[in-house]
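dumping this here before i forget
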Amino acid sequence: WLVGTALMHSLSVTEKRGLFKSWTVLLAIFAFALSLLGTFLVRSGVLTSVHSFAADPERGVFILGFIAIVIGGSLALYAFRAPAVSAKSRFDFLSRETFLLVNNVVLLVSTITVLAGTIFPLITDALQLGKYSVGPPYFNAVYVPLTAFLIAFMGIGPLLHWKSTRWEVLRTHLLAVVLGTLISTAILAFAALQRVDVWSLLALLFTFWLVMGVWVDLRNKLRHAPSLVKGLRRLTASYYGMQIGHLGFALTVIGVCIVSQFSVEKDIRMAPGESASIGEYRFQFEGSRPITGPNFIGTEGIVRVFQGEREIAELHPQKRRYNASGQIMTEASIDPGLWRDIYVAMGDELNEGAWAIRLHYKPMVRFIWLGSLIMALGGFLAIVDKRYKLKVKASHAVSDQPQPADMPARA
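structure:
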């Protein structure tokens, strides 16, 4: 996904300015190769994970051989043909090309850090150097700073012109972005969060930095339009796709930051009639009852959730035992909402009808998935841009024209 994002941005430079052609081809090779590597990891059984749903060594060997053929063949062809697709052109430091290049570098470094954390335990185990586990501390330490660096450039990149941008013009745009970011962050921090926390402030700063960058760029595009409607119609689908994608990323960022800082998990023993509280929510365990499904038997808990004195949900977590395999699975019960999700899961059964219960409170977790959907919408809008269709039609029109007898037909 990260390399594919870098490829998309590199393609925009290749389309607009004819630059980064060799780099774009290389990113395309890497993106497909890494998708095959992901397939190998989850289908070969080399990783023990909830995301690994098969353990077939023969299938893994086949996929590994396919990866070797694809990567080897593609890189060999690239080595022979790279000079033919190279392009030389000049651009200043303050230009969109420079910032898109930085975008590519940061995304590639992020990919390497994730790939290293995933592959390192496999390499040490294969070389019999011991068993290691790379967990959240590593990824938080190396990936979060890279994401912050990427966001800083994302907010500025759309404000720049191709080839060259005058500092006086950029300074005016940046001043508007900075002021809007600080004012919006201060208002929302004291009105919505109700307390000052350094991580929540950083999340809001990053989010509004992207949002204000989109707003200032859109304002510049509409500045000379005869009317707002005509100005909006004049903008291309790919432009809307870019800005919507950036807004989706902003929502995902704030969702990740708020969830990581303010989510609460509590593992407790609960007997029928007992209750426990997380923040403003009170969970009351009413007991359990046996259930029978189409292919399982199990136990279902009854948990009533109160906000103050008002009951807002009744959750039914389950502990299932499947008939075919005998495997025991935990089915969490969720009360979803735009601003928070509440999870309740059952652990082991204890004495006197009590159960080990896990309670989760996840604020703004829906923003992660909502932001991902908005980013996908942005990508779809970019794909349906009319100018790409016109290029295809023009290519077909040229190929359909009769060619002279001494001239080969164009494909």
